[in-house]
Amino acid sequence: MTDVATPKTIDSHGLAERLQAANPPRLLDVRTTAEFETAHIPGSYNVPLDLLREHRAEISNTAQAGGAEEWVLVCRSGQRATQAEEALREHGLPNVHILDGGIVDWESKGFKVNRGAAKWDLERQVRLVAGSIVLTSIVGSIAAPKLKWLAGAIGGGLTFAALSNTCAMGMLLSKLPYNRGAGCDVDSVVGQLSSCPASRPR
């Protein structure tokens, strides 16, 4: 039987200490560009999860050639970072950690973040869209009873998302212009990873 590798995690206090080291880890934030622009850990690079998955080999190869000895993946709470770690591990990127609790935990511990214009995070958008569809379906089923099956389909999709640790609705929403930015393409990401050294928060 093949053992399934358990992702390595690092807590917020441990990361804060590592960022002050002579050779600090490089931070890859796998949230959407909109979420990253709202708030991110200083010195981190934005590599949205959908982009990372699609170009995992190129991003992994560029990261390995960049000279950093340690990598930490950041998302809102840890779920997307876990998926990113799996994708990068498949292509041989060594010494990758996941920030336990994500940027939510980092902020709750009082550590610094760079802030921009506030936008809704992806999880909040999923809750809004899913809830709106369910509510509309239930109300609409008074006139068109078959609409109740749409609400059931959304419920089934959310259940599958929880069991599989994936979210198809979230991945679709992440591609909307609201969640994208001018630099959200593989060439920009590869350029950042190949030319910028790891940096400490100030």
From TrEMBL:
InterPro entries: GlpE_sulfurtransferase, Rhodanese-like_dom, Rhodanese-like_dom_sf, YgaP-like_TM. CDD domains: RHOD. It comes from Mycolicibacterium alvei. Pfam families: Rhodanese, YgaP-like_TM. The chain crosses the membrane at residues 126-144, 150-173. The keyword S-adenosyl-L-methionine does not apply. It comes from the Bacteria. The keyword Zinc does not apply. This is Sulfurtransferase. Keywords: Membrane, Transferase, Transmembrane, Transmembrane helix. PROSITE patterns: RHODANESE_3. Residues 21-115 form the Rhodanese domain. One of its GO terms (molecular function) is transferase activity.
